[in-house]
Amino acid sequence: MQTKFLDERLTQLKSLIASMGGCAEQMLKEAGLITFDKEVNREELYKLVQNREQEIDSLQIRLGKHCFRVLARQAPVARDLRLVLSIISINTALERMGDLSLNIAKKGKALKEDPLLEIPFEKLKEMFHQITSMIRGCLDAFINEDDRLAREVIIQDDRADQLKDGICVKLKECILANNDLVDTCIQLVSISEMLERLGDQATNIAEEVIFMETGRDVKHKKL
């Protein structure tokens, strides 16, 4: 009976993480639309992103309470304990993802395009796709309990860093060509840095999946 009750609670925790992850993933997609799609209503879409961020905050508080209740009342051990500890860390990572996506949407809403910025915009769009793929990958790895997929996400982080560096190089060139673009270029650099941090959070989640499945702590280690 005790084991069945614990299994039900752990299933509930995983379901809440899946809901948070879905919100975080959707927020980034919407932030991308705000940044790149001229046809969308940026203000309306930004309000939707704000609502999702509030939903993530609410889920974070709820999930945290459930996790500590399970630890206190059920005293899980071995893999079950690793699962709860990993969920606590993933809960924090997803909340930070929500904050970052909201800030990206806010900056994207105010961006103005210029022909000289075409290449940086394209590179930034590529980085959006890369980070979206990493977030989808780490969430799939968690849901499917797949440490192999988690390792693939971690490996992708180097590519995200390279894209960010490439964007910064191109933006410096644009500033040298036209000083009037300084403000816009600074905003684009800021967005690329926040995307990089989103990739770091996806990597953190992937590392927690590996810990959850294998008991190995791979943080700060090269795979």
CATH topology: Methane Monooxygenase Hydroxylase, Chain G, domain 1
Strand content is under 5%
Structural class: mainly alpha
Strand elements, count: 0
Profile the largest sheet.
none
- The share of residues in helices is over 70%
Number of helices: 6
The whole-number mean of residue pLDDT values reads 93
- Taking pLDDT < 50 over at least 5 consecutive residues as the criterion, the unreliable ranges are none
- What is the CATH C-level name? Mainly Alpha
| Shape descriptor | elongated
CATH architecture tag: Up-down Bundle
CATH superfamily: Phosphate transport system protein phou homolog 2, domain 2
Series of secondary-structure elements, N-terminal to C-terminal: HHHHHH
Terminal CA distance reads: 40 Å
Total discrete domains? 1
Radius of gyration: 19 Å
What's the SSE blueprint?
Elements: H1 2-36, H2 42-74, H3 78-109, H4 118-143, H5 147-177, H6 182-214
Helix pairs in contact: 1-2, 1-3, 1-4, 2-3, 3-6, 4-5, 4-6, 5-6
